[in-house]
Design goal:
three-stranded parallel sheet, 2 domains, six-stranded parallel sheet, Rossmann fold
Length: about 290
Amino acid sequence: MAQSAIVMDGKAVGARVRADAKARAAAFLQARGRPPGLALVQVGAQSDSAIYVRSKHKACEEAGIASFAHTPPETVSAKELLALIAMLNADERVDGILLQLPLPAGIDPNAILDAIDPRKDVDGFHPYNTGLLAQKRPALRPCTPWGVIRLATEYGIELRGKSATVVGASNIVGRPMALELLLAGCTVTVCHTATRDLRAAVEGAEILVAAAGRAGLIRGEWIREGAAVFDVAINRNEATGKLVGDVEFEAALPRAGWISPVPGGIGPMTIAMLMSNTLDAATAAR
C-alpha cells in the first residue's frame, strides 16, 4: 500500500498563532491602556466578502483585538474611499487597516491600497512592504504567503536549497510567495498563463504552492514523490458544490510527503497571520 501524505492541519497551527496573538494583545492592553485595533473596510455587500469579513471580526474578538467595521456602499466614489483611508491612517486607535477586495468596477484598487499607511498595512500589499520583502528586509508580510512559510516551519519542512514551484502570479499570493520562498533559500519557478509546460514545472517541484484559482488544474500524478504541497486556492466544485483547491487532493495523497487540504489548510493560516501582523503593527507603533 502506498504511503499517504501528511495532511497539514492549518486549523491547529493557526490556533497556536492566534493564541500567541491573544497573549500579545493582552500585554499590549496592559502596557498601552487600550487594545490593538484593526479597521476592516468592506465596500458593498458581496456575500463571499461578507463571510470573510465576519470571520476576521470573530478572530479579532477572540484575540482581544478591537475591530472597527467600515462598510461604505457600492456607490462610494474613489474620493470618498480615499478620505476614509486618510481618516483611518490618522486614527490612533487603529493599528492595522484591511481593505477587502475586490472593489466595485471603476475604482482602482491600487490607488486605494497605495493610500494606506505602510505601517498599518497588515495585508502586506503596499508597494513599500512588497519592496522591503524583495530586498530581504521584510516588515509587514502578505498574510497568505507568510502563512505558508509558518505552516512549513511548524511541520519541520526544510525549504533551503529546495526546488519550489509557484502556480499563479497574482500580487496577492503568487508574486509575494515567490519572494518568501527566495528568502527561505529556495530555487523558485513561477508559473502563469504564458507558461508552456505546467506539468514539467510541477513535476520538478520539491515545494509546490498552488494559487491559480482553477479547480483540479494540477493533476495528482504530476506531484513529485515526497513533495510538500501547499494548496492556496479555494474553488467551488460545480458538480458537488464542495470547496476544493487547485490540486487533485485524493490523487496527490499517495505521492506527496505533505499536503494542505481545502478547506482547513491555508485559509485558517491566512486569518491567523492577519492577527499576528496586527500585533506586529501595533507593537511597532510609537
